[in-house]
DNA sequence: CTGTATCCACCAGGATACTG
DNA sequence: CAGTATCCTGGTGGATACAG
């Protein structure tokens, strides 16, 4: 939202930044927009919230995560875990065993994000009928 | 999050659904996941939240929106407005005048989403330092 | 078991030109 | 003024094969 300083977007294309100046945007300092974008990009991507939601139940191993997040590919699981770890939302603990065992767990920060996400989920649930009605009533396309 | 019933994703590819069954996912009934996905897709896309944020200040005309959301293309403004309208988050009022005048305004539903988004923004702001630190400390890639 | 590497399909979204 | 139509880019993310 608000002036993607440099188009972070979801990472989709984004070659040039906006040609205009900052642009205040409804009371939100453009300064913060980069961070907000980043958080949104994390929340908005396909698997992060799912992984966080799944980890809410306690630490899990790679394979268990794969099982609990049906449909995720190995590639995306790895990428998602890496990004979440880089953001400090989850921790990775590797045990030097044979066979190798790695456990992922939520950090307090990650739990915080999950709470916000949960409120979003709650809102979505509270209003989904309303939204569906509108969508259904929207005639074409 | 949680079992994209049919891969809605951000609309990106998504040809097949997950081959597995429902998959409960941390207490969130798979039933609701479709709606949550939809809301997330709206929140997560590039311009919706910005438009909503801008409209928080009161009804605006097409051109004004374009000005207040620096960097948005006509195409994306139109698409975003259409989607928001279809979801019942904003209203469109056309006045039969010359030259034509069209005003977009938030609905109560839209304001509700904006509040949730605002809390997300607040969280992002409260923790951006923490996140940045983690990102900086993340050695490679 | 826990990943990494490669290939590629697909679609969001920018640029541009045109219309009522 | 308020859009629509068309073309194009490039990043996301699935599939698959391979590695420590």
TrEMBL record, chains A, B:
Indicate the segments forming the HTH hxlR-type domain, all copies.
25-132
Sample GO molecular function, one term: DNA binding
Write out the entry's keywords from A to Z. DNA-binding, Transcription, Transcription regulation
Q: Which domain of life is it from?
A: Bacteria
SUPFAM superfamilies reported for this sequence: Winged helix' DNA-binding domain
Q: Which InterPro entries match?
A: HTH_HxlR (IPR002577), WH-like_DNA-bd_sf (IPR036388), WH_DNA-bd_sf (IPR036390)
Task: State one Pfam family annotation.
Answer: HxlR
By its UniProt entry, which PANTHER family does this protein fall under? TRANSCRIPTIONAL REGULATOR, MARR FAMILY, TRANSCRIPTIONAL REGULATORY PROTEIN
- Could you identify this protein by its name? Helix-turn-helix transcriptional regulator
What organism is this sequence from? Streptomyces tuirus
